[in-house]
Amino acid sequence: MAQSAVARERLFALRETIAKLEGKPAPTLAAAASEALAEAGLEAEKTENALRLPLGIAAIDDAMEGGVPLDGLTEIRTKLLRNAGTSSGFVLALSAMLQRQDEESGQPPLPVLWIADTVASMEAGRPYAVGLRDFGLKPRLFLHATPRKLEDALWLAETAVESGVFPATILEVRGNPKPFGLTESRRLNLRAKASGRPLFLLRQSGEEEASSAIFRFLAEPAPAQARPLPDGSMLGGSIGNPVFRLTLEKSRNPAPLSLLLEWNPHDRRFLPVRPSADTRFPDQRAAHSGTELPASIDRPNRTEEVGALLAFARSS
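^ that's the sequence the OP posted. Answer follows.
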């Protein structure tokens, strides 16, 4: 296993000290330096050959050094339990992209495994077969398990990832349970790296905490746009493809990255949402534009802000 830069530096310094105490010539020190450089090259090569699933959006793919890791742990969390559909939809979209990738490469189709903790399954619900099909997945290639205890769910996730059979393993938990901490996440991440398979952790209604996940997303719902017509116009009053508001909380970037992504279930790929789109929810928009009225003569010259206006039908 390649060592970190600090460990290599300490090892080389120790070798140099031992060589000086033993009175060995300089070539011995050069050999030690060459060995350290070789180890650094192996680590760099491993980083370059890391498995990634690009999302097709340059901003987020560059932030994740090529895309979502396919040989490690990725965490997706929500602040509120009512937003569980957002995080679930994003993970299912990633699974659909993996199935499309296998189909294009000619590999035999393999099922996706969803492991849900009992508490999370009772509150957030279970995946619906018809909805999976409309979302871009194949229900016959989707397995769902609900162990009674969280410890059993962790054991099943670790075993499933270690087997290397499933193209994607999803582990859903509720909040920040004590039996699932930094040690457990580190063990899952090591199993995923060893087998070269992705593991997606769904933390419904959870807070930020120390984790061995390579990346962590905060998933929030966003209003869907209207459906586009063949002539390029938008169909008023219609509901288009689902839109996700994603914030990359944990990465090598100094600041979190937030953006809007639209999921196209037909093509099974993400599309960037136009910046001009109004992403506010209906309750955040004014019922009337609130056109400013001229100030009265006998009142202050500053016009007060007009709020939302509602039109009520006359009772008589």
